[in-house]
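Help needed: design a sequence for this.
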């Protein structure tokens, strides 16, 4: 019979930490709400799998590997059956010091050193708290909180986030993914022990200088008030080009601090509750398994001269207050892309994709901010009845965009470290892994 355990460990950084997620230097002045590493461990009697989602912008490969080593040592869960991912909140602590990039200006090394053990503690606690359960999977839908953020303008150009009420907007370039995936563990819809939830929306609805988990934290609170203080693991879907900004809304409308996060968290939280209430078939005979596959990802080309120039450009533009800053943004982003590529190696980077199977439901984790079109294609070609993509699983590689976006321009592709074919390599490898796992 299936067993499931859930746990969470506080990973909130101290006030005064550097926040990661924007180009400007931000130092936390306050803790708005706490950050957690939230874990689910499943055991079918033969195989065990583990998923840990952290309220962070991303997790570097080094910290992920350290945490997985500890989890394997303490639980015996195979390394390939472990997914460690981030929700991508932009009001969390810096995780790496990248002086050349101009993105991260400092970090709390004591906090970062302790992070892998905190992540592992969540998984170990979940492992030891596992008890017999049943599981059901069902999807809800929400079309009104997420928007494709790339738009075709009247002049034919494509712009990322062109602004609210911009009269030159023609239409969005691509789709959204409205599917809200819900995996529920318990005896029935009225007695739930834990949830794993997946939705494709950039976790960047909060600005400012306060540490926050953003809307997933609100979702957790909403669900806890309605269902109880149960296990809750939120995973971000393929949302590299998806955010909360509705360009059709009134540009003069002023929103209070945290209002977007509060509204979105409530909408999605109640959609989760509604979806659970519609569940009828809870089963205890499902099996679990996991797998991992490597993918060789081509990095953008660079040489000594291009790196030197990129450093000069980034250095001259970082923290600039010049009025002509917007006119240099593309040059700045392109330079960041080259510096990121250099930081990852030369010619190619070996990335990992991890997948977990729970009955006829699968989660597949990619190590990047992935365009929604790729996620939809993986879902369509997956052999499982339900498949959910998890972003920023196992590593933190930045944006992986569509080929056409490199021709169109825009924030995501211009600042990427990888060549245009990269996203398709990841897509095909993910489908290959899912097919292997399904056999």
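Sure. Designed sequence:
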């Amino acid at each position: 019979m299936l067993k499931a355990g859930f746990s969470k460990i506080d990973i909130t950084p101290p006030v005064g930490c550097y926040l990661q997620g924007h180009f400007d230097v931000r130092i936390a002045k306050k803790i708005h709400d706490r950050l957690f590493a939230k874990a689910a461990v499943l055991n079918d009697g033969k195989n065990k799998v583990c998923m840990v989602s952290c309220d962070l912008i991303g997790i570097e490969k080094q910290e992920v590997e350290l945490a997985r080593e500890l989890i394997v040592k303490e639980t015996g869960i195979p390394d390939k059956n472990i997914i460690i991912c981030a929700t991508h909140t932009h009001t969390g602590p810096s995780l790496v010091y990248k002086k050349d990039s101009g993105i991260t200006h400092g970090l709390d090394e004591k906090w970062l050193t302790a992070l892998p053990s905190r992540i592992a503690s969540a998984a170990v606690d979940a492992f030891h708290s596992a008890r017999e359960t049943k599981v059901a999977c069902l999807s809800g839908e929400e079309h009104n909180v997420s928007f494709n953020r790339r738009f075709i303008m009247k002049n034919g150009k494509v712009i990322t986030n062109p602004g609210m009420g911009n009269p030159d907007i023609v239409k969005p370039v691509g789709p959204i993914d409205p599917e809200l995936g819900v995996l529920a563990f318990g005896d029935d819809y009225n007695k739930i022990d834990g949830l794993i939830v997946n939705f494709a929306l950039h976790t960047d609805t909060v600005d400012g200088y306060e540490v926050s988990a953003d809307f997933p934290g609100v979702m957790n609170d909403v669900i806890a008030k309605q269902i109880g203080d149960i296990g809750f693991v939120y995973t971000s879907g393929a949302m590299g080009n998806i955010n909360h900004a509705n360009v059709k809304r009134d540009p003069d409308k002023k929103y209070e601090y945290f209002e977007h996060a509060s509204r979105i968290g409530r909408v999605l939280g109640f959609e989760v509750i509604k979806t659970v209430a519609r569940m009828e078939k809870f089963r205890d005979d499902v099996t679990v398994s996991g797998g991992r596959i490597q993918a060789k990802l081509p990095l953008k080309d660079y040489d000594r001269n291009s790196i030197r120039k990129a450093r000069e450009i980034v250095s001259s533009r970082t923290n600039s207050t010049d009025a002509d800053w917007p006119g240099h943004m593309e040059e700045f982003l392109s330079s960041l892309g080259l510096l990121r590529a250099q930081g990852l190696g030369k010619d190619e980077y070996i990335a990992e994709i991890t997948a977990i199977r729970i009955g006829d439901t699968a989660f597949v984790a990619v190590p990047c901010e992935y365009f929604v079109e790729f996620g939809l294609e993986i879902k369509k070609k997956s052999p499982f009845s339900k498949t959910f993509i998890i972003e920023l699983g196992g590593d933190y590689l930045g944006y992986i965009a569509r080929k056409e976006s490199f021709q169109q321009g825009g924030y995501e592709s211009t600042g990427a470290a990888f060549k245009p074919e990269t996203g398709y390599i990841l897509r095909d490898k993910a489908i290959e892994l899912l097919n292997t796992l399904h056999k």
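Residues 283 and 431 are 26 Å apart (CA to CA).
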